[in-house]
């Protein structure tokens, strides 16, 4: 496969940035960006120093009171317009996502569609920020709960979903009455500028306060400022477990609120009753899609010993048909790893797996190295393991699928749960009892547990997040809006008397 030239990619990105309305002074700066498609340089971004970061947080904090007092359905009008602009510029934004993150075109378009979908959900949510009314034990009293905005919400996002995860947080944070400051991955700053420009256009068109949102182009230091600033009421951080271990105590030390979405080590159980055609399709996409660089990527396959040889043979055959290369080329299914560090991590994991008794059944090799020596394309790997050895319990952000066997469904569920991470899991089965067991409290301990679909590809309507080292946060649908608000319990006495609760008498 012939890869495009870096100049061609850079020109396409420049055009897309202009179409999204990115101000010229934000492009061409000394904050370096590159494309994993070739490893070459993209137009730089203008970075933020300590003073500009402080100024952006200050301006967001100053804008909060007026936005807090704006009726929630009016706040929803902003998100409605933002969703319309995202729809209009879907292809432009997806082009930048592909150039910076290396996603194939359909996945990049899917990421922007996630942004559009969360806007739809948030617009509806703006009229449904419900509280409860509870019966009071005291006559002539009303007991209720109300929900109130927090203030400035700080968002730290990762390269693999360079815009969608920010949109999950931002759409709900804004309709809940908060302001937002975003520190994107330094690997995808141009995507952030384009996404933020479209939100800025919506703000201007509906007449909302100009300082509702800001983006920080910075290295790690910018994220640390968000984490440590007491004006930032909530820090929503997506990234590695290592990052979460650093962020969590720092936010807790200042009694800030925290929403963490960290690592995943996601498994699928395949039982003898499973539809293997369905299972193969679900497994291959979940394990090889996005070059294994989703937090929900399938990394472990726990298959019944009676069907293991057949299933692994079918998976390795399917892997042999995967087109690897230019993510914008028609028919490509696997794009590049984000950088050399990711490739080195994959090689180390494969070496360690073999040292622990594993056998590489397919893939694992680098391809297109002669054509693009600074880009890292790999064949997705399938590795048979004798058991769930130490390497299997670690998350490697690359397309490695470890295969293990089981004989008893309870043992399979125990293997599924026997890792530190707890994001997503799946079971492929035609047995209703097995399916119900898997999603019961005695089944998978993950925040997402699926039946007869893979571990990735969550919908906006359901809450997204996991347990254990995944962080425990919830984003997107269901009641996730409550993460961006504070509850208050209110008692209203209209009786003209002053009875005390629990029958206490105090005269």
* Total beta strands: 23
Distance between the termini: 87 Å
Please identify the top-level CATH class of the largest domain. Alpha Beta
Outline: globular
Biggest sheet overview: 7 strands, mixed
Give the uncertain stretches in residue-range form: none
Structural category? alpha/beta
Proportion of beta-strand residues? 15-25%
Radius of gyration: 24 Å
- Please bin the fraction of helical residues: 25-40%
How many structural domains are formed by the residues? 2
Supply the number of helical segments: 14
- If classified by CATH, what would the architecture of the largest domain be? 3-Layer(aba) Sandwich
Q: Within the CATH hierarchy, at the fold level, what is the topology of the largest domain?
A: Aldehyde Dehydrogenase, Chain A, domain 1
| Spatial order of strands in the largest sheet | 12-15-16-11-10-18-19
Mean pLDDT: 97
> Mind telling me the CATH superfamily name of the largest domain?
Aldehyde Dehydrogenase, Chain A, domain 1
Protein name: aldehyde dehydrogenase (NAD(+))
Pfam family, one: Aldedh
Subunit structure: Homotetramer.
Keywords: NAD, Oxidoreductase
